Amino acid sequence: MKLGQIGEFGLIDRLKERVFRPDKKVVTGIGDDAAAFRVSSRELLLVTTDVLVERVHFDRRIHSFWQIGWRAMVANVSDIAAMGGLPRYALVSICLPETMSVEAVEQLYEGMQIAADEYHLQIIGGDTVSSLRDMAVSIVLCGQVEEKSLVTRGGAQAGDLICVTGELGGSQAGLAMLQLMSSKRKGDVLPLPVEKWSAVRDRHLQPRARLREARLLAKGGVVNAMIDVSDGLAGEVGHIAEESSVGAEIKEAQIPIGSETRRIARHLGVPVLDLALCGGEDFELVFTIPAADAHRTAEQIIGETGTAVSIIGKVLPAEDGVVLVSPRGKRRPMLTEGYRHF
Questions:
Q1: 263 by DSSP, 3-state: which?
Q2: Which fold has domain 161-333?
Q3: DSSP assignment, residue 185?
């Protein structure tokens, strides 16, 4: 059997059956944004890891070394945030060809360090190995969270409202334009001036983790499930539905998509909804919350952080499946497939 036949998450399920062993100290293991286990009567240690591989997650024709470092760190911070925690310590492993300059590696680490400073964590070690050609960056990030504030993918309840912070599809739209720009012959002029898509360019090249928003949500005590949008809205809603054993409905008209993203979708001739549902690396938060608490919580988040919160659907019983609802009320199954490695 080939990996392409079972896919990324089929492989994870098979590996989980082989390696996972029950442990009373492990609160959350394989299948969430981070593992969580008890280190005291009140506090949990969070551990997450992400690997960024050249020509899979980044392209040196598009991304600077500084941006690669920044994006690698923020991807991990976002996972800790999605569990309601605070990031603390990072281990960074790099795989590099010997032809790479020392200055490039220093720029890579500068990007990581500035991100670490912004989110108040420390880089405390790692590993360095050689590569025959491409480079890769792997970060293990440890964080902490009060046990009462832990939020997982598995707590959604039928009747909850589904909410999302910020706007979706922007990172994918920015990447599409950057790829278009890098492929143009010298002297060609882009149909869209850069000033018309600079915001989504920046969202892709220097994304932000919603750490403050996540902490407010977690400490508020009313959010039942949460996940960060790293692989597209459709996939993340699918993960919550699977881990919580529920269904969901998402209203297309309520998905927050910015004007630049819509402009790029028109220019590229792609459905704008696809950018939001299937595009990755927005690093927004999707969460479920009882209807009675949703509007008050949304107002609190925008009031304290300036980040908008949109109510985009509701949690259904599992037998109702995961569906998209068109502006005219037509319902159809939502393919819960975001970005997949294979």
A1: helix
A2: Phosphoribosyl-aminoimidazole Synthetase; Chain A, domain 2 (3.90.650)
A3: P
Q: What is the DSSP string of 134-166?
A: --EEEEEEEEEEEGGG---TT---TTPEEEEES
Q: Where are the domains of the chain?
A: 3-149, 161-333
C-alpha distance from residue 328 to each of 44, 251, 255, 312 (Å): 45, 10, 15, 15
- Considering the domain 3-149 in this protein, what is its CATH number? 3.30.1330.10
- Rounded to the nearest 10 degrees, the angle between the axes of helix 198-205 and helix 170-183 is 100
3-state helix, strand, coil in the chain (%, to 5): 40, 25, 35
Lowest mean pLDDT among 26-30, 50-54, 121-125, 172-176: 26-30
pLDDT band, residue 196 (cuts 50/70/90): confident
pTM above 0.90, yes or no: yes
Reduce the DSSP state of residue 327 to 3 states and report it: coil
Q: Which residues contact 303 (CB under 8 A, 6 or more apart)?
A: none
Q: Give me the pLDDT at residue 274, please.
A: 95
